[in-house]
Design a protein that fits this description.
heterodimer, A: mainly alpha, MetI-like fold, two-stranded antiparallel sheet, 30 helices, 2 strands, about 0% strand, globular, B: alpha/beta, D-Maltodextrin-Binding Protein, domain 2, 2 domains, five-stranded mixed sheet, 13 helices, about 40% helix
Chain lengths: ~675, ~325
């Protein structure tokens, strides 16, 4: 009895569970509205779709003369505006691409196709890969020294010798546009939100939705608005990569202490100076994490972007997977990770480079790197020229190594996959069957047998216990939207897979994270592993997983767990690392054992932070469950995939995406509210 | 909307006139013709083959990766110019949806007949895992051969994603009276089908998957199940009960409605293009079996088969 009075929340939870099960077992499909809400929103996708179509193709018609077919073409204003925006982005991407790989489109942009056809000389030559590689190495050296130079050298040589230079440069060219735009956009919006409360209030919910919405669901709208091609891929990537940048900028700026601000004002800073010279440098740490996130997100989109026309590694990866050439896909995946790591390290080094204000160097010293690059440039071209005499039969290895003409380790990986298959298949099969029959199928059935009233009671009840009536209403409203669409049952299946994935990921993540946090080397290693898996295209392991576990929910869940364990691990490591050493010492002095210290001191103190990790785990798991549609599911993801070919693709895609986002947001709201209160209680807010 | 349909009609008329009179109206635009590439070999090779043919006529081309379902919306908007592999049963719906909205025209049909149907790998028949296959009646007695962990004791049909043919297969299972013995599972994409095929082969278990021909699986042998013959109106969507197999299907070509005006010569050639099952098989084999890159495969096919494609480009055929 004593226990219950000490923990009032616990008894509330007990009552809530009792109510939930009472409802669960006493309401059956015959009870109409208590069982499932009527789908009042059935028409919404069509309405959204029709309005988008109207805006894009009918609203404000304008006549444009097309000299080629000697006719006036009727088109809509908005379409012309978005298409010209597309063209300018595409121009930038093509420009970088043609500097790296050669081509005619940049010249076409200033003249026309006829001009290029008539003048053979009018094309940009490709830069020899040796020049690009050596240039990258030089930049690495100039920014940070030998270590970074070695990293760049390894990456560029790997990419070119494996014959992936062309697709890698195609991917690079669109990342080099998408990443800076995301960065600048994120920084600007973050600053606006910091300066203006209204902006922040408007921006926050949008950010929440954008970060929890699966990227599949806005592919069709992006395609309708901006067309198909590298620019569309870049725009989808920007939508995906900007929100974390905004959030981190805002977070960093808010942390700047008023004293710093006052000091800036006292020195007579103007508004812009205050921002540029005081605020941003002080908030540097968070902004740099933002840059890291932008780059990671951009390359994580490399594969998805190829659904709507981005060329490069992502497209080749899908092609390789379709032929079940896992080894080749793996090599492509490694290229994506390498590009991510190199860009991340280079941008970090650049941002951390201190300006030497007092140096007064002679011309040669000041421009030594530019001069050196000049030397590299000329040497590279001379080498390529010499190469054209050495390699007479087509491929000039000193100029451009064509796609898939390099060395390959495909057979090795293929053998590895075969070996895993031969060794583990039958034991895995038994495991798979019992998992499906004894755990997954019953769990799915239990979720589907949940009356809508019981779901609402449970979720809103938890909301009430954690955050009072306000939280209950917020999560209730989010849920209500899903319940009123046609897709409630689909959402329940999504919820079942997400729940299972999150539970397993959290158990693995906290265990591994805690173990690794004990040792500083292990901490570094595990964080590196986390980074790698975050950018490594998850599509690659979909195929081997299907080979081993078939087109089943197990396959989807394994993919989910691999991906969703990342944040759980990362936040555990960080959370444990941030426990003040003085508290640990205090514990040690009271004579706790190592295990006691972990259970009684470290975990409780780190738990609010770990909960944020769990929050991320839920978002990651939702993402992967949706991508699981590529394996074969019958949840929301399958319908989002289907939206790619629907008549009402735009409407269905967006509204299904919102369903997923709202599940994520409800969980996000509950966990954040809880973590905030808990932190206040612990006095570590 | 109406205007658009009128325009399409006008465009179609122009083509007919142009073909009848046998001469092109004007010179082709030098703007590039945009050809989509999807994620299966024969389609990508054929994209480069068609691109090569256009280039041989002096046109500029450009390739863009696209999703095979979503591409029709892009053709409609003019972001992509053509689609050269419109499979009746998998993409027919997306194709006609886009056509109904206006902006896409039907640019003729390939000689290749396609079949898109449920089937089993050849060795399932050879080893007699289910006696009587490929006749569908045999399925009645061997649900256990095709059962999987999540099929609840029933045999499993692994169908393509729901976006390909909706509820066609579940309806068929029920209409044939197989509903108590079989259940349909939707895979996420073609690669999931191939992965299951490869796994089944290694494991020596039976599997019923959705497949099509011409396809690279033809090389290893694949037996399509012989369902009751398709007749007009036998499908549920057309008023029947759904107890019939798939028809021998067409493989069409689609184009943006302005293509005949903007690139009259290229359009005429494109509308004449007609690849046979053999041609498509050769293109896929160069990549899937000889492990060439897609561009090289296209170059080598173009070089070896001038007799096939040259006539498409010549007037007066």
């Amino acid at each position: 009895m004593n226990y219950i009075t000490e923990h009032p929340k616990l008894s509330q939870f007990a009552v809530l569970l009792a109510v939930f099960f009472l409802l669960y077992f006493n309401i059956n499909p015959a009870d109409g509205i208590f069982w499932r809400l009527p789908s009042l929103l059935t028409d919404l996708p069509r309405i959204v779709n029709d309005s988008v179509d109207f805006l894009m193709f009918e609203w404000w018609p304008i006549e444009i003369y097309d000299p080629e077919i000697e006719e006036y073409e009727e088109t809509a204003l908005l379409k012309e505006i978005t298409r010209s925006f597309s063209r300018s982005i595409l121009f930038c991407i093509e420009l970088i691409r043609e500097i790296l790989l050669g081509g005619v489109k940049t010249i076409v942009a200033f003249t026309d196709w006829d001009f290029v056809e008539e003048n053979e000389w009018a094309r940009l030559p490709a830069m020899p890969w040796t020049v690009v590689a050596a240039g990258g190495i030089l930049i690495g050296y100039a920014l940070k020294g030998k270590g970074l130079a070695l990293l760049v050298a390894f990456a560029t040589i790997y990419i070119s010798s494996f014959g992936q230079w062309e697709p890698a440069m195609e991917t690079l060219s669109f990342v080099l546009i998408a990443a800076p735009i995301s960065f600048i956009l994120g920084l600007l919006l973050g600053v606006f939100a910091y300066k203006n409360r209204t902006t922040e209030a408007i921006l926050m919910p949008l950010l929440n939705v954008a970060q929890t919405m699966p990227h599949f669901s806005y592919l069709v709208p992006v395609m309708v608005f901006f067309g198909i091609g590298d620019h569309a891929g870049a725009i989808a990537t920007i939508i995906f990569a900007t929100p974390p940048m905004i959030r981190l900028t805002l977070l960093g700026l808010k942390k700047v202490s008023p004293e710093v601000l006052d000091a800036g004002m006292m020195s007579g800073c103007r508004n812009f100076q205050l921002l540029y010279k005081v605020l941003i440098p002080t908030a540097r740490r968070d902004i740099l994490i933002g840059v890291n996130q932008v780059i990671m997100q951009c390359l994580a989109m490399a594969v998805i972007a190829s659904f709507i026309g981005a060329k490069g590694l992502g497209f080749n990866l899908l092609l390789a997977l379709n032929q079940l050439r896992i080894g080749q896909a793996l090599e492509l995946g490694i290229c994506i990770v390498l590009i991510a790591v190199v860009l991340d390290k280079l941008s970090l080094a650049w941002a951390n480079k201190q300006t030497d204000y007092f140096a007064d160097l002679p011309f040669m010293q000041r421009h030594k790197y530019s001069l050196f690059f000049g030397v590299i440039f000329i040497t590279g071209i001379v080498l390529a020229y010499i190469g054209s005499f050495i390699f007479k039969d087509g491929i000039n290895y000193l100029y451009l190594i064509p796609h898939n003409k390099g060395i390959t380790t495909e057979n090795f990986w293929q053998a590895g996959v075969d070996w895993i298959w031969d060794t583990f298949f039958f034991s895995l099969k038994a495991f798979n069957e019992s998992l499906i029959q004894d755990v997954l199928m019953p769990m799915k059935a239990a979720y589907l047998a949940m009356p809508v009233v019981a779901t609402f009671a449970l979720v809103m009840g938890v909301g009430y216990i954690i955050g009072g009536i306000r939280s209950a209403l917020i999560v209730g409203a989010l849920l209500l939207y899903i319940a009123l669409t046609d897709w409630w049952d689909r959402a329940l299946i999504t919820a079942y897979m997400t729940t299972f994935g999150v539970i397993v990921s959290v158990i693995i993540g906290i265990t591994v994270g805690s173990l690794c946090a004990q040792n500083s080397l292990a901490t570094k290693v595990i964080l590196l592993v986390c980074d790698t898996f975050q950018t490594f295209p998850s599509f690659i392991y979909l195929i081997p997983v299907i080979m081993l576990f078939g087109v089943t929910d197990t396959s989807v869940l394994i993919a989910v767990i691999v991906y969703a364990t990342i944040p759980a691990t990362r936040y555990t490591v960080e959370g444990l690392g941030s426990v003040p050493p003085s508290l640990q010492d205090a514990g040690s002095m009271s004579g706790v054992s190592r295990l006691q210290r972990w259970v009684k001191i470290e975990l409780p103190l780190a738990f609010p932070h770990i909960m944020l990790g769990i929050n991320q785990t839920v978002v990651f798991a939702l993402f992967m469950v949706i991508i699981g549609a590529m394996i074969g599911t019958d949840d929301l993801g399958q319908y989002i995939l289907k939206a790619l070919s629907d008549k009402q693709g735009t409407g269905n895609g967006l509204l299904l995406g919102l369903c997923v986002a709202f599940i994520g947001l409800a969980v996000d709201h509950l966990i954040n509210t809880w973590a905030k209160k808990r932190k206040e209680d612990l006095g570590i807010a | 909307m109406k205007k658009l349909i009128n325009k399409v009609a006008a465009a179609a008329l122009t083509i007919t006139l142009a073909t009848v009179s046998g001469q092109s109206i004007a010179k082709d635009s030098s703007k590039p013709i945009v050809i989509p590439t999807h994620n299966w070999s024969s389609q990508v090779v054929m994209a480069y083959v068609i691109g090569g043919i256009f280039e041989s006529m002096g046109n500029n081309v450009e390739y863009v990766p696209a999703d095979s379902q979503a591409v029709y919306e892009s053709i409609r908007n003019g972001d992509v110019t053509i689609s050269h592999e419109v499979w009746q049963s998998s993409f027919g719906k997306s194709f006609y949806n886009a056509m109904a909205k206006g902006g896409v025209i039907d640019a003729g049909t390939h000689a290749a007949m396609t079949l898109e149907e449920m089937g089993v790998p050849q060795w399932v028949v050879d080893e007699n895992l289910c006696p009587g296959l490929p006749n569908w009646e045999a399925l009645k007695n061997c649900k256990d051969v095709f059962a999987t962990a999540d099929s609840g004791g029933k045999g499993r049909w692994l169908e393509g994603p729901q976006s390909w043919h909706g509820d066609l297969m579940p309806v068929r299972v029920d209409a044939l009276g197989l509903g108590d013995d079989y259940v349909v599972k939707f895979a996420g994409g073609a690669d999931a089908l191939w992965a299951d095929l490869a796994a089944a082969k290694k494991e020596g278990r039976g599997t019923i998957i959705f497949n099509w021909t011409p396809n690279f699986t033809d090389a290893d042998g694949f037996a399509f199940i012989e369902f009751p013959e398709y007749t007009d109106g036998c499908r549920k969507a057309d008023g029947g009960d759904g107890s019939c197999g798939s028809p021998k299907g067409w493989l069409k070509k689609a184009a943006h409605y302005q293509m005949p005006k903007r690139w009259p010569a290229a359009y005429t050639t494109f509308s004449r293009m007609s690849f046979t099952t053999k041609d498509i098989g050769q293109m896929a084999a160069l990549v899937d079996i000889d492990k060439m890159s897609h561009q090289d495969a296209a170059k080598s096919w173009l070089a070896d088969h001038e007799d096939v494609w040259k006539p498409f480009t010549q007037a007066g055929m």
